[in-house]
Amino acid sequence: MPPQSEPTQVKPESGATIPQLFTWEEIGTHSGQRSSKQDQWLVINRKVYDISNFYRQHPGGSRVISHFAGQDATDAFTAFHKNEALVKRYLNSLVIGELAPDQPCCEPSKNELLLKDFRALYVTVKKMGLMNSSYLFFTLMFLHIVLLDFAAGIIIIYFGTSWVPFLFSMMIFATAQVQYGWFQHDLGHISVFQNAKWNRWFHMLVMGLLQGGPASWWNHMHNQHHAKPNCYRKDPDLNMHPHLFSLGKTLSRELGKMKKKFLPYNHQHKYFSVVAPGAIVPFFQLITFYFIYTRKKWLEFVFMLIFYIRISLTYIPLMGFKSFMAYYWLARFLQACWFIWVTQMNHIPMNIDYDKNLDWVSAQLAATCNVKQSWFNDWFTGHLNFQIEHHLFPMMPRHNYWKVAPLVKSLCAKHDLDYQCKSLLTAFADILSCLKDSGDTWLEAYLHA
């Protein structure tokens, strides 16, 4: 007789030779959602792991691994870990059993055939060398950003601080900061160097010395976004709901029915351009210092201080303290505008809801869309115009997105998935259009529900 998969709450004793068998139904009851004391289990390649104690020590962040509690995390595990063999050595102590033989490879909410095809595609992508980076590409990319950074100061030195050189220098400085942001994004995704440690160290240096932020905070936030994009309470990019914006029709309708109103959301498409970047600038400054203090990331704090000392010693002697404050905060606001529009053009117009535990491919396609390729779009967005490919293969170097895009399109066509690709201006317009629709949905529910 085949092994029985009757649900059981009994954990195997230490040193047991017969693996404990579990069903998806039983694993789903160990999501940790009912109580912080509840056990958290997840599945990777049919093995069941108890992460109830480990998640707090998880190097990628405690929340990102907890978001998969009670679920299959196989594809997320592959997407986020460069050296799976090394990581699995640390996971061995967490194994409590495996899926029973009569259980499918994923939960009923997921497309098993799609997952099998995607995993085959992932193997093909690795064989094609698309996970390998070009050091020449990233070297040239970094050098052009450094030149922009130097150019901002040279303009002030040679042309003075009148309005024209002041504004032009400020825009160049903001452009350099945005491009540093795209570069640290590459490092944070372990996609520049083959050695993960090199990526982490350079990420800390670029983020701290050149941008004035902590790399560990970025990893903590951004890994969650990639794990569960557009999933409310799991994707931190949605934290502006409901205090600043009402996002997605489902959440907006729910908010309206509860008669909640922090701002007039029916006008959010009008104030988005100012409120979103205006809120990010002080939020970034405050939350990063708070994160460093609470997590005791003192080395990153030193790097941040060096950044602020560097730009202060560069610009204050040239323009005075008051002019420098105007220069710095205007540049930060411009940087925030650039960042907000580029990052949200791929997500706000897409489905925003609670976590439905979709398979890796369906979840990413439901939450992301692309913008058409061009030399300018690639540079302007840091290749995030290939958002679909980036979310499916987050460790892939960005210069290879265009190569894998046809394969992803074929996979989507085979499984009838919507692969959206727009012009840059259409993507920007869709942000405002969707905000208006969400705001109208909220108002209708607020007034009549």
Question: Could you characterize the architecture of this molecule?
Answer:
- The protein folds into two domains: 108 residues, Flavocytochrome B2, Chain A, domain 1 (Roll); 341 residues, no CATH class.
- Helices cover 59% and strands 4% of the residues.
- It is built from 18 helices and six strands.
Tags for this model:
single chain; 449 residues; mainly alpha; Flavocytochrome B2, Chain A, domain 1; 2 domains; 4-stranded mixed sheet; 18 helices; 6 strands; 59% helix; globular; disordered N terminus
Provide the fold topology.
Layout: E1 21-22, H1 24-28, E2 41-44, E3 47-50, H2 62-66, H3 74-80, H4 84-91, E4 95-99, H5 112-127, H6 135-159, H7 163-188, H8 196-210, H9 215-227, H10 249-257, H11 268-295, H12 298-319, H13 321-344, H14 360-367, E5 370-371, H15 375-381, H16 387-392, H17 401-414, E6 421-422, H18 424-448
Parallel strand pairs: 1-4, 5-6
Antiparallel strand pairs: 2-3, 3-4
Describe, in short, the structure shown.
The protein has 449 residues and is mainly alpha-helical. The protein is built from 18 helices and six strands.
**How many E strands?**
6
Largest sheet: 4 strands, mixed
Average pLDDT over all residues: 93
**Approximate strand percentage:** under 5%
